[in-house]
Design goal:
15% strand; 8 strands; EC 1.5.1.54; TIM Barrel; 10 helices; 276 residues; alpha/beta; Mehydrof_redctse-like; 8-stranded parallel barrel
């Protein structure tokens, strides 16, 4: 496992209790020695201060931290100010995203696409930041076609992205085909696989409907058959996702990015299986 990079994602807490819980979660997950922790950034920058505060705390603890930065609804001036805050905090890695419009927004601001954000970061800060962007092995839900989605990804890399993290998925073939297609287009940045542990059937279905991630029929039916038996859901989910991770790493994925949902146990259980 040493030759693979892996990272863990948090979302910024909204309450003092949430901050305390995240602190405990991070303390546990730091024992796994991830390459970095990433911290999400709400639509239109709605969690901007929470993201920065969480990142500062991670950095102060001696860990690497990568804030997300979404540009939809933002102006060049507001993004410039955020970049200055990140630099001042000691951030050297950013996950650059278009982001979703918060409800009530009528216009998208000065940036329409993530490649424009990547280009702006490079113009403003040169090579200061290592920039990760998003990739969609099962095609972005708003893309006109799979080829359009690939072209959008290519534009982000051409604008200066160093690497990519995928949306979560449960079909390894979709990931491998996506990587193969990007390589045929001359794109050779590392594409790290996004991993969502399975712990709650209803929550998983809701997230997957929103982001376009496909739950294989056999997995969906098996999870549904457990009803409210959360122990069986977690045990089965751990088996499914462990097998997925093993296949991805054996097939050449450069690393894994765990969507922790601010919980330590699911990611820890997966990692313990993988390092056996």
């Amino acid at each position: 496992m040493e030759k693979h990079n892996f990272s863990i994602e948090f979302f910024p807490p909204k309450t003092p209790e949430g901050a305390e819980k995240l602190r405990a979660t991070r303390t546990k997950l730091s024992q796994l020695q991830p390459k970095y922790f990433s911290v999400t950034f709400g639509a239109g920058g709605t969690t901007q201060q929470g993201t920065l505060d969480t990142v500062r705390e991670i950095l102060a603890a001696g860990e690497q931290a990568a804030p997300h930065l979404s540009c939809v609804g933002g102006s060049r001036e507001s993004i410039r100010a955020v970049l200055a805050d990140f630099k001042a905090a000691g951030v050297s890695r950013i996950v650059a995203l278009r982001g979703d419009l918060p409800s009530g927004y009528g216009a998208s601001g000065e940036f329409r696409y993530a490649n424009e954000l990547v280009e702006f970061i490079r113009a403003e800060t040169g090579e200061h930041f290592h920039i990760e962007v998003a990739a969609y092995p099962e095609v972005h839900p708003q893309a006109r076609s799979p080829q359009d989605d690939l072209n959008a990804f290519a534009r982000k890399v051409q604008a200066g992205a160093d690497a990519a993290i995928t949306q979560y998925f449960y079909n390894a073939d979709a990931y491998f085909q996506f990587v193969e297609q990007t390589q045929k287009m001359g794109i050779n940045v590392p594409i790290v696989a996004g991993i969502m542990p399975i712990t709650n059937y209803t929550q998983l279905m809701r997230f997957s409907d929103m982001c376009g991630a496909e739950i294989p029929r056999w997995v969906r039916l098996k999870l549904a058959s457990f009803g409210d038996d959360s122990a069986s859901i977690k045990a089965f989910g751990l088996d499914v996702v462990t097998a997925l991770c093993e296949r991805l790493l054996e097939g050449g994925a450069p690393g894994l990015h765990f969507y922790s949902m601010n919980q330590a146990a699911p990611t820890t259980a997966l990692w313990q299986r993988l390092v056996k």
